[in-house]
Design brief:
- The chain is mainly α.
- It contains eight helices and no strands.
- It has a domain of 71 residues.
- It is elongated, with a radius of gyration of 39 Å.
- It starts with a helix and ends with a helix.
Length: 191
């Protein structure tokens, strides 16, 4: 009998809950259907005019300045990359960045790619693949010979504490390359 009473209480409370929900929904629908004063904005008309004026001035003056600064910052980025990487053709990349600003950004991808490339022909012509500022910044003498440049770099690595076994392998490879280069130069002088 007690379980029957419990079942009846549960069904009665569920019935009351559904009835309360229906009454609440009907009350909400009545409020939505009944006419009320319509408002187009949360602001008063005077405040709305002031806000529109400030917004217009912001869009006319601030947004273009921000866009120009962002455009300039993006177009100077390849120059900064080339400077950081001590690219030997840094001045040419800087010039291309400036030209890209004049031509509306059409040359910018070329400057970006150029800043990330390693100029092989430059090293063959000038004996180094670093900008002269690299040697000044690191307190090194500007190399007159490619082999001397590599030897200076190996000595700098030795000062930093690189294991001598690795440096000896680099030095032996360098000696082998120098002997091949000397043999090639001797053969070209004879012929």
């Amino acid at each position: 009998m007690k379980s029957n009473l419990h079942v009846r209480n549960v069904t009665t409370s569920a019935h009351h809950a559904s009835r309360t929900l229906v009454v609440g929904l009907l009350a909400a629908m009545c409020l939505l259907v009944s006419p009320s004063a319509a408002h187009a904005s949360l602001l008063s008309p005077e405040l709305e005019d002031k806000l529109a004026g400030f917004l217009a001035l912001f869009v006319i003056f601030v947004i273009p300045v921000v866009l120009i600064v962002l455009f300039w910052m993006v177009h100077v980025l390849p120059e900064k990359i080339a400077h950081k990487r001590h690219h030997p053709q840094f001045e040419a990349i800087r010039t291309l960045c400036l030209l890209s600003l004049v031509f509306g950004g059409l040359l910018w991808p070329f400057a970006w790619l150029w800043a990330y490339t390693k100029p092989v022909g430059y090293k063959l012509a000038y004996g180094t693949d670093k900008h002269p500022d690299y040697f000044k910044e690191h307190g090194l003498e500007e190399p007159t010979d490619a082999a001397l440049d590599i030897r200076q770099r190996v000595d700098a690595l030795e000062e930093r504490g690189v294991p001598s076994g690795e440096l000896d392998a680099i030095r032996s490879d360098l000696a082998a390359l120098e002997s091949r280069l000397a043999a090639g130069n001797a053969g070209s002088e004879v012929g």
